[in-house]
Amino acid sequence: MSTSPSVLVIGGGSTGTGIARDLAMRGLDVTLVEKGNLTHGTTGRMHGLLHSGGRYAVSDQASAKECIVENRVLRRIAGHCVEMTGGLFVQRPEDSDEYFEKKLEGCRECGIPVEVLSAEEAREQEPYLAKDIKRAIRVPDGAIDPFRLCVANAASAVEHGARIETHSEVTDVLVEDGEVVGVEVTHKSGTGPYVHGNPGEVEEIRADYVVNATGAWAGQIGDLAGVDVEVRPSKGVMTIMNTRQVDTVVNRCRPKGDADIIVPHETTCILGTTDEEVEDPEDYPEEGWEVDLMIDTLSELVPMLKDARTIRSFWGVRPLYEPPGTGTEDPTDITREFFLLDHADRDDLPGMTSIVGGKLTTYRMMAEKISDHVCEKVGVDAECRTADVPLPGSEDFSVLRDYMDDFGLRSPIGRRSVQRLGSRADDVLTSIDPNPVVCECEAVTRAEIQDSLDTAGTDLNSVRIQTRASMGNCQGAICCHRMASELAPEYDEDVVRASLDDLYQERWKGERHGMWGEQLSQAALKHMLHATTMNRDADPAATESGVDFAAFDDGAVADGGRDAHAVSEVDDGDY
Amino acid sequence: MAITDDVLVIGGGIAACTAALSAAETGAQVRLLAHKKSTLRQASGLVDVLGYAGDDGPLANPYDGLDELPEDHPYRIVGEDGIRDGLRLFDEAVGDAYRGGHTDDNALVATYGGTMKPTARYPESVASGLVSASGDMLLVGFESLTDFDAPVAADHLEAAGVPFSVRGVTLSFPKAFRADAKLTRFAKALDRDESVEGETVRSALADAVADELDGESRVGFPAMLGDDHDTEVRDELADRLGVPVFEVPTGPPSLLGLKLEDMLFDALDEAGVRIASGNPAVDFEADGDRIETVLVDQKSRMTPYEADQIVLATGGLVGKGLDSDREHVTEPVFGCHVPHPEDRYDWSEPEAFGDHEFARFGVVPDDELRPTDADGESHFENLRAAGGVVGGAHVAREKSASGVSLATGAVAGRLAGEDATQ
Lengths: 575, 422
What we know:
Chain B: One of its GO terms (molecular function) is glycerol-3-phosphate dehydrogenase (quinone) activity. The complex is a heterodimer. Chain A is built from 17 helices and 23 strands. In chain A, helix 1 packs parallel to helix 5 and helix 13 crosses helix 14.
């Protein structure tokens, strides 16, 4: 191909895809590898807050300033991923006035627009806030869909010539003559989109430069290269409610603490979170007390949460980092800033840089910084354009009109499809006719599912994160098998079934954390549909031993047999 | 003045209907208190008794598995006689609309995912599609009905080794509806035989299917072949195609389930059972260990219903006969004891199809189906339980949901009727 320098990016989260987009737009030859699907790590497991910076305005002003800058950038380039809900920092009577003033002052110092609301004004905006709240600060927080954002970055990178390989794990970092020259990658199902049943394949990918953007996993990649990257993974729980109890991001206005934020997200609200250091970013306890803590503490702000229905809970791992020797004990005190670790300077190992720390809101800025760094290393002189060029889907919002008539879909379905697809709506929704609804809870049509299959292969979890299908109230009870059927006829029935099983199990993992009340009833119904009616738990097609069909009722009534309603040989009155 | 009956049955599903029919047989005056639509809307309409027990299954004969069931299983309490009595009441209630009563053996029926399940009774419209019967099969699905993918279902059946060849095709339904039209809209079009481009829907559909037919001796559709005029629709299609036509049971909204509900309520009418529907039973008044009245919440006021005997058939977790919060599982009307692990994380298993505790949640019956307290003593001498509210059976795994409802309903209803009329 070209003679442009080649860069290999490890990690398909917001940072990795952001870097891939940035470098591809600057003309570099980019390959990104990710061991799961996109957002598999921390990006897919966060509360979806687009920070105004308010949260860090007292404790970490450097981060706060970056947040408000990027908050504005993302509204511009990723409009279809952002819902500007606004945010409130709510003070309860027991929360200190001093901290409230500090928060207000801090926001002003960082350039974050603020407004103080009386309790009445705050309750007018959010009627379910507790009656005894004292006052609130309004800030420009928002909700952002991390899945859509990440997928849009990846799509843009591909448009600019990048190669993106998901389900491709780095199994070695190639070091020759004291320099990183590439990686060994194990593709779980060969190259290209993941397909159930395709054999795995090992590939050596050489590159002029390697970027380790694996966040909480950065230490593991460091180990493969023989360098120490001191990430301090910290877990946090997020609990999803079945509806939007609030339409504004609601923060508790007090110094750091667990369970202090509610983010409205699509049809749900997400409660967060905890902050606890863990050893292994993939193997840590997910505990019921954390879920209880979310509900019990946040119902101090919004009392109706106490008896509301939770759909599921999930945990994410923050990629916190602090320079060696800092020795912070409490993970909540570790800075949220990001760090660029050039292993040439640090470890005398040229050819690779790791990026750690940071947060989703500032992903683009992090990507810009490291892309600048990489360009300098490989001798490319090109400007970053990611702050100005909209992401695919956000180019032109004139399509957000008359979707109902345009697509022959009932208004809520049309509206939600267009919100997700943005300026791509026209292309996608008119591609298939008829275009029936596959997921009713989230109003996802066949066309949107089919569109996502281009990059998803047979990975229905990738379809899920792209479209939100199976992420609503029924958690896939009604639509999981429909999503799987969309894989046919391109893929065979055994692949359809295997991908269905994977999606079903993935949904179940998070559902278990919300299993009481209404949601336990819903889970029982899902179990009845899939086990009782569909017999998927004992599917004869999935068992080794064959079925002796001839031993069963073949429907034929033998001569002299009785009609169904005439059976009367039972011993009535025997009791 | 309270409304007074001999037997009051609380619930509106298979168990409640069976209990009411069974009690009525004893000569008792029976009233059914149904809150809202039963869970039959979500059920396949198939009536299973026992398909899997212990490590065995699919069972060709449900009675062969009874000994494999745990001691506290409701089938162990009511015995084979109870099961047979439940099926007898069912067969009498639904008449020719259901098949399978000619034998003890289970039939194998394919449902909408293309998986087969063992079942004791099946709607007449399903009968010619048994997987346990021979005859090559054509399955027909529709582009705009995402719930049933005929080619996938056909391949799934092939993968299970069915002893005939099966093929699936996807057609566009002769009449176009909005993209989010539900299955009921299709059924209605067939019911009314609506006109489409100078033709009628039924004949246009038959023509489209005839073009695809390649020697198969039976043709299956998702269960949407008419509602009020289903037999007529099916007969016309079969007549035009020259081969039997059958339905494949679907998920919600399940027309087969809804039709079963209608049949059961018709049977209640015929048996002289009084029906009060639309409002929930929420509380009761007792004198010692006898329940005197059941209180029904009629929006603005509580209406008392008096009865000599009461049958609780409010369903399980799905039907809301059981309730739960983060710490407890409860039976909300009478506060009957529902045993459960203390830690809610022990209510389920990490594997989606694991042996979940929650699936067995329910009240603990004594040998006359009276719910018991933690010490094994019955809560009330005149309260019995039937169906999903009774614990001890993992009905999803066993494929025994309908059978447990029929059997416990039959026995609880009969005992209640006998006690009331003594």
